[in-house]
Specification:
Keywords: Hydrolase, Membrane, Transmembrane, Transmembrane helix. The protein is of the alpha/beta class. The protein has 13 helices and eight strands. It starts with 9 loop residues before the first helix and ends with a helix.
Length: 290
């Protein structure tokens, strides 16, 4: 089990735990890409930045197909997330109750089982949803000899699968508490979301010897402004309207790989994929348990 960070701040604990997990799982980068620029790196959000829609929602769909829960539950998860996004109540998911129920759907399951399912579900529901333009940006950094990490609210085990399949260095994700290789259903700190992502990037930079002024971060969401502000170069990818405004105000780059028709089609997944894992999967489950 990963040791919890010492800070009392759940966001800091989440960030430090995510960085520790990334280092523990990493192997220094793709084996066929020499690391020649060791102090610069790139950090990519996943949902609607690297992947169309929300990775955790796709994962939930795959679990529903395997009878982890019903399709009615899945619809409930989507509805809870819609209310969460429209109501703007992000802080609700930082409460003790929100943290403790965020991964209740895997409580009692073996890490190996969830990882194996993640591999299958990636092939079934995620592989063809990668934005080609964003993937090319990641490859640009790899070709320059830099390391590339995903930074996401998705569970770190799933995030690492996505990173590995894309040939990236690794991933910073939400860390679940594990005892004897079994998930307890609780988080280490909180969901890797908002400020927690920035803490994770800073913690990883200290461990890996990165100069954040030489690093680049990519995201679609205004919730990731803390992470984008932590590095020297910020890029808004497929940005929501609020992030687009911030990017214009601060002179950040904007890359949009959506067409009008496709942007309309991914509107609901965008709402579902705000970046809070509890909203996408466990909010509906927790509501049913109450």
């Amino acid at each position: 089990m990963l040791e919890a960070a010492h800070s009392a701040d759940p966001a800091v604990r989440a960030g430090e735990a995510a960085a520790a997990a990334a280092v523990a799982a990493g192997d220094g980068g793709p084996p066929d890409v020499p690391l020649t620029d060791l102090t610069a790196a790139a950090f990519f959000d996943v949902d609607n930045t690297m992947m169309v829609g929300a990775s955790i929602f796709h994962f939930a769909r795959g679990l529903a197909a395997r009878k982890f829960f019903t399709t009615a539950d899945l619809a409930g998860f989507a509805w809870q997330q819609l209310k969460f996004r429209v109501g703007g109540r992000e802080t609700a998911y930082s409460t003790t109750t929100g943290r403790d129920t965020a991964l209740s759907f895997v409580a009692g399951r073996a890490v190996s089982e969830i990882t194996e399912l993640g591999e299958e579900i990636y092939d079934e529901l995620m592989a063809d949803r990668i934005w080609a333009g964003t993937r090319a940006l990641a490859q640009m950094h790899l070709d320059a000899g830099q390391r590339v990490w995903l930074v996401t609210a998705t569970p770190v085990e799933l995030a690492l699968i996505i990173a590995r399949r894309l040939g990236l260095t690794g991933a910073l994700g939400t860390v679940a508490e594990i005892v004897d290789r079994i998930y307890t259903g609780r988080l280490v700190g909180e969901i890797l979301h908002g400020p927690a992502k920035a803490h994770a990037v800073r913690a990883l930079a200290v461990t890996e010897g990165l100069d954040l002024r030489r690093c680049t971060a990519y995201s679609d969401s205004v919730n990731d402004v803390p992470m984008l502000s932590a590095v020297g170069t910020a890029v808004a990818v497929n940005p929501d309207s609020e992030l687009r405004d911030v990017a214009k105000e601060r002179g950040w780059q904007i890359r949009d790989f959506r067409t009008g028709r496709k942007a309309a089609r991914i509107g609901v997944p965008s709402v579902i994929g705000v970046g809070a894992i509890a909203g996408a999967v466990a909010a509906g489950l927790a509501a049913r348990k109450r």
